[in-house]
Amino acid sequence: MRIHHVTAALGSLAAAAALALATTAPAHARTGAVSDAPARAAADCPQGYVCFWSEPDFGGEMRAAQNPQHDCEATPVQPARSVYNHGSDSRTFSSKPRCSVRVGSLEPGGSARSIEVSSWQ
Description:
single chain; alpha+beta; five-stranded antiparallel beta sheet; signal
């Protein structure tokens, strides 16, 4: 899994760090149900889609989107608190509407377990 940070402004540095931290489970959480969350997300998210959950660790309501309809669009869950990219392209995520504050991007197969994003492209 590779995460590329894209910072649009100084204030987004903290958001980018949050995305990097969100994808790394602490050592004590690598056993049991919490560590199974990314595997569960991969199984639940249809191939070719990006899936968004309303809660961290791929909990709560899930919505899948295949491709953004526009250059930038709102996430189907507002805000999305975890994301799994089961598509074939890298996707960029932002913490604000209209992709104004970029948090980072996820390569295919990448996930963010605990994040807050509102738009993507």
